[in-house]
Amino acid sequence: MAVVRDLRVLLRFQGFRRLLGVRLLSQGADGVYQVALATYVVFSPEKQTSAASIASAMAVLLLPYSLIGPFAGVLLDRWRRRQVFLYGNLLRTALACVTAVLMLSHAPDWLFYISALSVTAVNRFVLAGLSASLPRVVDPGRLVLANSLSPTAGTLAATMGGALAFAVRLVLSDSDTAVVLVGAALYLCAALASLRIAPELLGPDQEPVHPHLATTLVGTARGLAAGVRHLAERPRREAAWALLTMTLMRFCYGALTVMVLMLCRYAWSSGSDDGLAFLGLAVGVSGAGFFVAAVVTPWAAGRLGPGRWIAVCAGAAAVLVPALCLPFAPIPTLAAAFVLGVTTQGAKIATDTIVQSSVDDVYRGRIFSIYDVLFNVAFVGAAAVAALMLPPDGRSVALVVTVATVYASIAVAMGRFELQ
C-alpha cells in the first residue's frame, strides 16, 4: 500500500519522529485535560447546563487568548521552538496541578477559569510551534504526507487521551481532579521528550532575542502587519483563501459541537453518565474520521490539488450533515460525527499544506498564530450563535440548515477560486 510505504519512509527521519513524539504526548495531555474540563463544567449533576453557559465558558477560555495570541507568532519567530516545547509543557504541568487543587477545594468558578485559560494560552504557543516546525524536519516533497500524519496523529492522541480520561473517571469514582493530574503527568512527559531534539534544529534561523516589553509590543504590531502583507501578496492568495474557508468550517464544527453536547446532556440520556457515554462514543467516531482523512487526503490532494480538496470536503459536509443530523437520533448523528471528522480534518491537512508551502519560513510562526486565533474566534462565535438558536434539548432544524448553507457556500467559493 503506497501510503504505508510513504509513512515508513517518513518515520525514518529522526527529527520528524522526535517532533511527532512531542506532539503525541502534548496533545494526548490536551485530550485528558479537556475532558476533565467538560465533565466538570457541562456534566456535573449539580450544574444546570445550557447552551448559553457552554458559550460563556468557551468565551472565557478562548476569547482572552485572541487578544494575546498574536504575540505567540512574533515570539515563535524569535525564540527557539524546541525551547517553547520544553518550557511550555513544564509550565502547563504546573498550571494543570493548580487546576486540580482548585477543583479539590471547590474554589470559585472565576479562579478555575483563570487556571484553565492559562493552560489554553500556553497550548497555543505549543501547537503553533509544532506546525511551524514541521517543514524543518521533512523535505518539501513529503510535506503533504507529513501534514496528514502529524496533526492527525496528534488529534488521534487527543482522542485517546479523552478515552483515558473517561476510564480514569470511571475507575476513580468520577474524580475530575485525578483526571487533571493524569494530564499534568503527560505534559511533563512531553517536556522531557522535547529534550531529545537539538535546540537549533527547529529554527527559526536567526539568533533568538529576548526583547523588553515595549520592544515586544512594537515588534508585535509591525510583525503582524508584515505577516498580513506577506499573506496578501499574489503568490500567497491561495493561503489566504484557505485560511478563510477553514475558519468558516471551524465555525460550522463549533456550532454542531455545542448541539451534540446539549443532545448528549439532555435529549439522549437519563443521567450525566449516560450523556458522557454518548459524548465519548461521538468523540471516538470522529477520531476514526480523522484517521480516514489522514489516509485519504495525500492521495486526494495529490490528484485534485489541496484547494479543490477543501472544496470537495465542504461540499460533502453540506450534503451529508443535514441528511444525518436532522433526525436528531443517536446513530445518524454518530455517522455525522464521522463525516465531520473526515471532512474537517481533510480540509485542515490541505490548509496546513497550502500555508506551509506558500509562506516563507520567517513568517510561519506569526501566520500559524493568526490561524489559531481565527480558530478560537470562529469556535466562540459558533457557540454564541448556537446559544441563540438551540432549544434546551438541543434539537434545532434552523441550526443544522444554517450550517449546511455555510458549508455549501464554502464549497462554491473555494471551487470558483481554484478555477481562476
Task: From the alpha carbons, calculate the radius of gyration and give it in angstroms.
Answer: 20 Å
* Beta strand count: 0
Name the poorly predicted regions: none
SS class: mainly alpha
| Binned strand content | under 5%
The averaged pLDDT comes out at 83
Distance between the termini: 35 Å
- At CATH level 2, the architecture is Up-down Bundle
- Which descriptor suits the 3D outline? globular
Count, helices: 14
Q: In CATH, what is the homologous superfamily?
A: MFS general substrate transporter like domains
CATH topology: Growth Hormone, Chain: A
CATH uppermost class: Mainly Alpha
Helix content: over 70%
Largest sheet: none
State the order of secondary-structure elements, H for helix, E for strand.
Answer: HHHHHHHHHHHHHH
> How many domains, as an integer?
1
Description:
With 420 residues, the chain is mainly α. The protein has a single domain, classed as Up-down Bundle (Growth Hormone, Chain: A). It has 14 helices and no strands. The protein has helices at 2-10, 14-41, 51-76, 81-104, 109-133, 143-171, 176-194, 213-232, 237-267, 272-304, 306-325, 330-358, 361-389, 397-419. Helix 2 runs antiparallel to helix 7, helix 3 crosses helix 8 and helix 6 crosses helix 12. The longest helix is centred in the C-terminal third of the chain and has 33 residues, at 272-304. The radius of gyration is 20 Å and the shape is globular.
